[in-house]
Here is the input.
Amino acid sequence: MEKRNKEGLTEKQFLEQYNQGDYKRPSVTTDVLIIGMNKDYTKMKILLIKRGDHPFIDCWALPGGFVEENETAHQAAARELKEETGLKDVYLDQVYTFTKPGRDPRAWVITIAYLALISELQEVEGLDDADDADWFDLEFTDEEIIISNEEKEVKIIYSLKKKIFYNGVIRYENYIPALKSQDSLAFDHVEIIIEALKKLRKQIKYSGEAFCLVDEKFTLPELQAVYETVLGQKLYKKSFRDMISEYVVETGDERTSRTPKGRRCKEYSFKMEE
Here is the structure.
């Protein structure tokens, strides 16, 4: 026997008379923070695109776009990444959903942010509705975020102020950004960067994300440099090696590390789960 609601309607009858226009609906987008490392693993690099249309025309932004009707947010993020930059088949992890009213001047738009990690800085170009695309240096401290590209003569600076928030009885800190430079990021993309980096810093010690930022074969000094750059702090050599020992296996080869003043070291690879 079919179940009926309080009005006596079956599910089929309910759906036939349901009017989507009775409720306002937001548009949904995805935005992607793509992180790689420079050649000696001492700086994080992020990929930005230059917007070719309003709003925020000529501003640098994270790659992204609208989710289409017959795709998931993850599929949309991967598609937009390929369409706007040419990158494909990269690590993607959902970060957070941004819903602040007025975050997009066009309409009611919520965005699902993703973090992408790559081991090699591939050549990119602005495709689709992006006028340009390039890699930028990223510095993230408790005091400020600096995003720069000397060749493009772009330097975007936000000061950061810590603020205490409460979720029930749980107390946590977050950063409130304030623009200090003439150049700025589009939309609320600086907030996406903050949340993505906070998540990466929280997870990197307990999962395999760091191995997405090095070559398939690497030295331990290279891997430690990645951890230190992402975390923004130095690590004791022994503590670091104890932390990652279960994730790595020797390849049997040696080579010179790409780190500053690199020396000849054993080569390792990520230990895949059996």
